Amino acid sequence: MSSTRVLVLNSGSSSVKYQLLDMRDSSRLAAGLVERIGEETSRLEHTPLHTGGESREWTGTIADHDAALKAVSAELAKDGLGLDSPELAAIGHRVVHGGRRFTEPTVIDDAVLAEIERLIPVAPLHNPANLTGIRTAMALRPDLPQVAVFDTAFHTTMPESAARYAIDVETADAHRIRRYGFHGTSHAYVSRATAKLLGRAPEEVNVIVLHLGNGASASAVRGGRCVDTSMGLTPLEGLVMGTRSGDMDPAVIFHLMRVGGMSADEIDSLLNKKSGLIGLCGDNDMREIRRRVDEGDERAQLAFDIYIHRLKKYIGAYYAVLGKVDAVAFTAGVGENAAPVREAAVAGLEELGLAVDAELNAVRGSEPRLISPEYARVAVAVVPTDEELEIATQTYALVNGSSNLT
Question: What are the strands of the beta sheet with 327-331, ordered from one edge?
Fold first, then answer.
């Protein structure tokens, strides 16, 4: 029996998200989430997708990631999809930070684990949790290929002119300070899917990808390769986000230290957790913000306007970087569902060949679609992202010795 299944794991500090896919047709066999790991009451939700069955929920104590993955394995086994199945070809792990070394999916060994651990200082919230999930999965199935797919990998093709900050080179190199970018798995998937939507090969298409969720990032993709992206050393830089400030004068930090008497940790919390939309208007849910805007709420209107202003600036900047743009693609929770955001982001850019058709923009759906009028020189698209499928595709291609990503 050929092994065609891939289990995708996304391990957070207190959670594990998972999907099991069959790569013969990219179908999903099961999906689920374990959350509140290590707390008094943990929760596991599991959905057997291959049978169309109803979701099962379990609550109790799940002490650690080892217990979490064993619980996941038990749920999969109930559906005949256990981790001991000979049809399981590999386990693909989302790893947030791969630094400069990891430019593509990588089979995990001791050296890879050591490098992911070495990168913890530049990804202190994510890489430790990713490592825990990897080590637990390796202990459960030491005979199975385990593959790391890095959020930063897609952005490693950026030229030095885009990746380097204009600070002292020796200091930057000593502390690994440069633009790494994040959401790369999503940007890779969406840029290829956009090319497919246009009926062209990725190598022939220049795309501006706008990944707009609670975290948000933009990328400029030339011929299938990233040449610039908005997030930097960390996910804090760039667009206005749900709770993150995005771009800001670095001297604000010194000002808050000297004049505001704030500590580094307090400023870190301010910029990452209490800024962005929630800092501007008290809400980080775009649906709620739009509701307030429609009711005439001035704070919500200002937050929305700042969000759009920054977004429009990046569209223009990446248009300049690329020189020629074939498509602008909106993705992730806000990008896929908030028609007013898409309309406002493109409004006024008609001279750049960008326009949105109001009727097409209002349509909701789960498939990639164009929302620009036929006369527009640049296509505007809504392309639902699928990071789990991208991780599974890259993992399966690697363990089967194929580089063909469809």
Answer: 225-229, 216-222, 206-212, 327-331, 379-382, 369-370
